[in-house]
Design brief:
Blueprint: H1 2-11, H2 14-22, H3 46-59, H4 62-74, H5 93-103, H6 111-126, H7 130-143, H8 149-161, H9 165-177, H10 184-196, H11 200-212, H12 219-231, H13 235-247, H14 254-266, H15 270-279, H16 285-301, H17 305-317, H18 324-333
Family: Belongs to the PPR family. P subfamily.
Pfam family, one: TPR_24
GO cellular component, one term: mitochondrion
């Protein structure tokens, strides 16, 4: 027993324990702790990639631009509207565009390359460089880089917004020459342009073409139709289109309600405007805030204080957010 007690007592000494296990002197044991593995490098954000590309493009380092376009997609930091922000309508525009045309075909095959082209085309459209955007379209077609209807959307959007309808239809012919079909979004650009101008006849022609290709309208199609009805002063028709959207289970944009509210106020249908927003109240808090706030602001501006108070009291009861000006009006007039 004395031998056992001695062994247990000595075992509490760390030197004895290590010697017993390793068979070596404690002096030969490495007591340095194992260093923790290094932290993985922090991944860059989308904004950081945009900033790096901006700096590279500004300095003329387009090889760096190419590498960053590849790397950002690998890191799931996809291109944004700011990716080619360094490209502006300045003296360096032409040379920068040529450099981009040189390096984009050298980006990674597939999504990376196609999306880089589409992002650049969108940037060119924002700069009003439609002809150059079509040059890139041709580059994509020659290189077989995946042209689709989405590639043409920024061009059609830019042209139809400026009511350059004939030019836009010529772009459609370019699409067809490359076997790229029109889609609902493309038709919606034409439809919205005609409806904004109140040109019901041309809008009807666009709808006829859509139906001829077997396409059904989406939320934006109906939004354009509501806009067209309002621009034509046909509020009843706009309401009928809204009801049809509900019957077909299509989500309604906040802007679609705004079209109706704006036209009702413009026509002097103040009480009907109040009834309209209350009829939809309680289904979508954000919609309630947008619709009621918009109507109240328009009523105050027209000095229709009675109706404005009704709307603001309803907003208060429902706990809806008000803008600063409306809140001040409510506190002075309704408390």
């Amino acid at each position: 027993m004395s031998l056992l007690r001695r062994y247990v007592k000595e075992a509490t000494n760390s030197s004895f324990l290590l010697q017993s296990i390793s068979g070596r002197s404690i002096s030969t044991v490495n007591t340095n702790p194992i260093a923790p593995p290094p932290h993985p490098p922090r991944r860059r954000t989308t904004t950081e990639f945009d900033n790096l590309i901006y700096e590279a493009g500004n300095s003329g380092d387009f090889e760096a631009v190419r590498r960053l376009l590849n790397t950002r997609v690998v890191n799931a930091c996809f291109n944004t509207t700011a990716t080619f922000k360094f490209l502006t309508n300045t003296a360096s525009y032409a040379s920068s565009l040529e450099d981009l045309r040189r390096v984009l075909p050298q980006t990674d095959v597939g999504y990376t390359r196609r999306h880089a082209y589409e992002t650049l085309i969108a940037r060119l459209c924002k700069l009003g460089r439609i002809v150059d955007a079509l040059v890139l379209i041709n580059d994509m077609a020659v290189g077989r880089f995946g042209l689709s209807s989405c590639t043409f959307h920024p061009i059609l959007n830019a042209l139809t917004k400026k009511s350059k309808i004939e030019e836009a239809w010529r772009v459609v012919e370019v699409m067809r020459s490359h076997a790229v079909p029109m889609d609902v979004t493309a038709y919606n650009y034409f439809l919205t342009s005609h409806c904004y101008d109140g040109d019901v006849a041309e809008a009807s022609e666009v709808l006829r073409k859509m139906e001829g290709e077997g396409m059904e309208g989406d939320t934006r199609t109906y939004d354009a139709l509501v806009l067209g009805a309002c621009k034509s002063g046909k509020v009843e028709a706009a309401m009928a289109i809204l009801r049809r959207m509900e019957e077909e289970g299509l989500p309604v944009l906040y802007a679609t309600h705004a079209h109706v509210i704006g036209e009702m106020v413009e026509c002097g249908y103040y009480a009907q405007g109040v009834e309209f927003v209350l009829a939809y109240a309680g289904k979508d808090q954000r919609l309630d805030e947008e619709s009621m706030g918009s109507l109240a602001s328009k009523l105050v501006k027209r000095k229709r204080f009675k109706e404005a108070k009704l709307v603001l009291k309803e907003m208060s009861v429902r706990g809806l957010r008000m803008g600063t000006a409306l809140r001040e009006f409510y506190e002075k007039q309704c408390d």
